[in-house]
Amino acid sequence: MQTTTTLEYALLGLLRQKAQSGYDLRKTFATTAMRHYSDSPGSIYPALRRLEARGWIADRGEASTEPRDPRKRRIFALTEAGLKALVAWIGEPVTRDEVVLREAALMLRFAYMDGNVPRSVACRFLADFEREKAAYVAELRAQFEEMRSKFPLHTGVLAFQSGIEQMEAQLSWARSARARLAESVS
């Protein structure tokens, strides 16, 4: 079984919004909040080829040309199989490992929820996120208190505190976002 990368899911989500060329996708990665994904042709085009080989995207058979650029660009569109894969990924349960190690991928899944899954799925996602994040923050708080008792003004302890407070802010955001979304479901 081949693993699908977060970059590939990011591409599927963008192609769900509209058919685009590889060049257009690269521009999105270079000029938006998605810039932490590589806009390198050495990353984007192989990912597009893998998605096309799986049947998740297809060349629409039309070419696009940018003004003053004579090169023809292939336009890719999401297929039904690609949409199914994207929706399945979006709806996966939130895990502790994701909260700890892959939060950017979690936020990408959340960003792609509207128009792809029911609001109830987004509310469940946020509830799972809250549960996993709160448990992790509680563990870190206990470690912090132990460290702080040994090294009250150590810069490493203060940096650790900063990280915990950022996670607590994310937890607060998740609670607020879930409450707002729950209102729209009712």
How many structural domains?
2
- Gross geometry: globular
Helix/strand order, N-terminal first: HEHHEEHHHHH
How many DSSP-defined strands? Answer: 3
Structure overview:
With 186 residues, the protein is mainly alpha-helical. The chain has 2 domains: 6-90, Winged helix-like DNA-binding domain superfamily/Winged helix DNA-binding domain (Arc Repressor Mutant, subunit A, Orthogonal Bundle); 96-185. The protein has helices at residues 6-17, 22-31, 41-54, 80-90, 96-101, 103-111, 119-150, 155-185, and strands at residues 20-21, 57-64, 73-78. β2 (57-64) and β3 form a beta hairpin.
Q: In summary, what is this structure?
A:
This protein has helices at residues 6-17, 22-31, 41-54, 80-90, 96-101, 103-111, 119-150, 155-185; strands spanning 20-21, 57-64, 73-78.
Question: Which terms summarize this structure?
Answer:
186 residues, mainly alpha, Arc Repressor Mutant, subunit A, 2 domains, 3-stranded antiparallel sheet, 3 strands
